Amino acid sequence: MTQVGRREFLKRLLIGGGASLLPGAGTMLAHALGPAPARAAGPARVVVVGAGFAGLAAAWELRRRGMTVNVLEARGRVGGRVHTLRGYFADGQYADLGAEFVDTNHTTLLGYMKTLGVRAVKVLRGTNTVFFNGQLKDEDRIGEFGAGVEEDLDRFDSQSAWLGTQVPDARTPWKGPDPVRLDRLNLDEWMDRLKLHPFVKKYNAAWLSGCYATDLRDLSLLMYARDQKETAHVPAEGELAYRIAGGSSAVAEAFATRLGQAVELGAVVEAVDHDESGVRVHYRNGGRSRVAEGDYAVLTVPTTILKGITFRPGLSQAKQRSIDGMAYGGLAKVVLQYRRRVWRRPGYSGFVVTDLPVHCVWEATGNQTGRRGILTCFLGGSDAERLGRMSPRERVESALAQVEKIYPGSRRAFEQGVSIYWNDQQFTRGSYSHYSPGTMTVIGPAAALPEGRLHFAGEHTDQVQGFMEGALASGRRAAGEIGRRAQGQNIATWLLDYHLRRTERAALSPG
Q1: pLDDT tens digit string along 35-72?
Q2: Domain assignment of residue 333, yes or no
């Protein structure tokens, strides 16, 4: 069956009663959308809450469709959890305090970068290392940590790949052969069931707790299986393949420049009124209460912030449950600048996975000039939470001491450092989202669904969860929903077609 033929088959199946192919099934979708609005007499007006990647992509796409857009951002900058620190370090060097890497299958992000004129730069390749039990070893010598280590690393990878086969469709992981059982398990206990070599368990726990920004006992195995399905076609060299020239904020800033006065900074949203006539978003800016009116609204902020917004009338039980039940772990970064790149050795990348509280360490300046260099120390889960309780000075000192263990003598070259704990950020209050055990099958189907004239975006609503790619794709999806509704169209079949096209693009992406 051709790609077009498959789409038409699925559309007919949907129209004929197969609505369970869509997240939440037909009744939930019908309730969320309500009756299709009549075609607007003029260009629709849309209020976008949040100028992170999801909000900026939504605004861009809505503007491209000829709509009037008002973007309300609480911070004094755009980007949300994307934040490049510039002007702090010597030699004009910079570091990303938030999202940083781009995979080859992140086609939405790479496409926007091309459109906006923002370059991708290849991540410096070389030998990665591991630091466990006080020993720094090349990754290709990892077998020296014990008999059977290499075999169990391969077994873990093959079992992870098998998990991915238990999710027929990454868009709807709750539609697999046994989703509830997988959902109720956590990744930590599944790893225990594999009876892995202790080193292999510790190594994967260090890496994955950073990837998911949570302790593995707090992560649904179904979510992990969904992610294995999503990345099954991505080769190892396709992961962490690129950085963004000038830092990840360059993308957000390029969006904002083109959106111009449509973006209002310092706008703290407090309440949203919504009915059949439109939406009214109440917010504060500079101590004054204001109202932004529109035909639709796109809510793109994390659910940690959505919980603090009053909706009048209240949201449906399913939608509110999807907001209240979404989990956010701990996430911290400490970036340290040194007078020289003491970690550099011929052929080395500077990337280390460790059994220390800093789960991963990598060079932030691999593509930047100058003799100086910056190391990023990355922490997730309870280790990040412990760091978050320290003072800024203590955080830097803690990371500095751990790097000294990995690279003895490096402290003598240290100049300055800075940290961020995302859970303390007023307008974030968390890392990126994840599903706790038992929640994905319950709240997942409603996470991305509209609610009347309210549409929802953000990485927490996308299958590429926790990435810039997912945030941008969700914003584009929400804009597409509104664009078709503003024309009086039913969007149910379009939603399915949109996800089919996107999955096909990712599968054909360069690796």
Answers
A1: 555 555 578 999 999 999 999 999 999 999 999 999 99
A2: no
Half-sphere exposure of 467 toward its Cβ, with a 13 Å CA cutoff?
A: 23
Q: For strands 331-338 and 327-328, give the pairing.
A: unpaired
User: Which pLDDT score is estimated for 80?
Assistant: 98
Nearest residue to 54 (alpha-carbon basis) of 448, 474, 502: 474
Please tell me whether residues 21 and 37 are part of one structural domain: no
My answer on whether 291 and 216 are in the same domain is no
Number of domains into which the chain is organized:
3
- Which pTM value belongs to this model? 0.90
**Residue 6 confidence class, pLDDT cut points 50, 70, 90:** very low
pLDDT at 345: 82
Residues β-bridged to residue 96: 84
118: Cβ–Cβ under 8 A, 6 or more apart, which residues?
112, 244, 245, 246, 250, 251, 254
Distance separating alpha carbons of residues 424 and 427, to the nearest angstrom: 9
Using an 8 Å Cβ cutoff, are 279 and 28 in contact? no
CA–CA separation, 261 and 69 (whole Å): 10
Q: Give pLDDT tens digits for 144-169.
A: 999 999 999 999 999 999 999 999 99
Place of tokens 């209002």: 264
68 shares a domain with 7: no
Per DSSP, 346 falls in state T
pLDDT at 26 > cutoff 90: no
Q: Cα–Cα distance between 49 and 71 in angstroms, integer?
A: 6
In whole angstroms, give the CA distance from residue 285 to residue 267.
5
Angstrom CA distances, 231 to 102, 136, 238, 276, stand at 13, 29, 10, 40
CA quadruple 385, 388, 393, 394: dihedral, nearest 10: -30
Please check whether residue 39 lies inside any domain of the structure.
yes
Strand partners, 336: 375, 417
3-state SS class at 195: coil
